[in-house]
């Protein structure tokens, strides 16, 4: 286990790793980052550092430790990453998100609030964790396979923001429209579709990054977390 990773305990007593990013000036709240199928790679660690710079204590758990721990892939290995994602036990990983939130509260205090940000597979996991686990706010980016959860998604009751690219080949438009209908009358859920953007539009430094959409989505996520996670409604970290 490297210096940047800590051990968490799963609900069945096994230990798995999560990347920990600590803020210089903690704001008292936590964020769990849920990666794409590439797992906790350099880009995800950069995302964690960005939220830590805002004052959040951040964990990014190894999503695939049950298959093979510590496999964090670059974007030059798409097939291996997709295979990793297809083999994942989604329900089991959602319980890991709950354990990550508990770890953060043990560190920050029992009353600390914890948000989740997820991308791709991580977006799917983020929404399910917001329903099933002790999570206080959710930001889900281009979540895949939500058609498998249309009966459960209406149970989401915490403040949330959902981001989709308008030209995403991995998320069918009928699924996006079904999700939009579910939350159309839900005042605690904000739904956004970004024009001329595809899957992975928030992946700065890598194609198919779209800066305008990525900046706006991040701004909306930080605004959500400011309101839902921070007692004073403002970040203590510097951007």
What would your notes on this structure say?
34% of the residues lie in helices and 19% in strands. The protein is α/β, with parallel strands linked by helices and 239 residues long. The chain has one domain (5-229): Rossmann fold (3-Layer(aba) Sandwich), CATH 3.40.50.1820. An eight-stranded mixed β-sheet has the order 1-2-4-3-5-6-7-8, sandwiched between helices. Strand 3 (30-34), helix 1 (42-53) and strand 4 form a beta-alpha-beta unit. Helix 3 crosses helix 4 (121-132). The longest helix has 19 residues, at 90-108. The two termini are 30 Å apart. Mean pLDDT is 95; it is low at 235-239.
Task: Output the keywords.
single chain, 239 residues, alpha/beta, Rossmann fold, 6 helices, globular
What topology emerges from the helices and strands here?
Layout: E1 5-9, E2 15-21, E3 30-34, H1 42-53, E4 57-61, H2 78-86, H3 90-108, E5 114-119, H4 121-132, E6 137-141, E7 160-165, H5 173-183, E8 189-194, H6 211-229
Parallel strand pairs: 3-4, 3-5, 5-6, 6-7, 7-8
Antiparallel strand pairs: 1-2, 2-4
Helix pairs in contact: 3-4
Instruction: Average the pLDDT over all residues and give the rounded result.
Output: 95
The CA-CA distance between the termini, in Å, is 30 Å
Strand order, main sheet: write it out.
Answer: 1-2-4-3-5-6-7-8
- What is the total domain count? 1
CATH superfamily: Alpha/Beta hydrolase fold, catalytic domain
Q: Stretches where pLDDT falls below 50 for ≥5 residues?
A: 235-239
CATH architecture heading:
3-Layer(aba) Sandwich
Taken from the alpha-carbon principal axes, the silhouette is globular
Tell me the fraction of residues in β-strands, as a range. 15-25%
Helix content: 25-40%
């Amino acid at each position: 286990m490297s210096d940047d990773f800590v051990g968490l305990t799963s609900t069945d007593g096994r230990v798995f790793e999560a990347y920990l990013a600590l803020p210089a000036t903690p704001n008292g709240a936590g964020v769990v980052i849920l990666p794409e199928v590439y797992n906790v790679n350099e880009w995800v660690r950069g995302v964690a550092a960005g939220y830590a710079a805002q004052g959040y204590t951040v964990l990014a758990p190894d999503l695939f430790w049950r298959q093979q721990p510590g496999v964090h892939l670059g974007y030059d290995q798409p097939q291996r990453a997709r295979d990793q994602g297809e083999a994942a036990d989604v329900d089991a990983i959602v319980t890991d998100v709950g354990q990550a939130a508990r770890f953060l509260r043990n560190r920050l205090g029992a009353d600390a609030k914890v948000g989740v940000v997820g991308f791709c597979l991580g977006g799917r996991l983020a929404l399910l964790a917001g329903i099933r686990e002790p999570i206080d706010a959710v930001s889900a980016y281009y979540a895949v396979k939500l058609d498998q959860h249309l009966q459960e998604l209406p149970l989401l009751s915490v403040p949330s923001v959902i981001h989709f690219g308008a030209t995403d080949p991995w998320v069918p438009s009928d699924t996006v429209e079904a999700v939009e209908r579910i939350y159309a009358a839900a005042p605690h859920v904000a739904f956004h579709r970004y024009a001329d953007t595809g899957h992975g539009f928030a992946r700065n430094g890598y194609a198919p990054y779209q800066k305008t959409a990525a900046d706006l989505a991040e701004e909306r996520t930080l605004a959500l977390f400011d309101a839902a996670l921070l007692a004073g409604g403002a970040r203590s970290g510097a951007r």
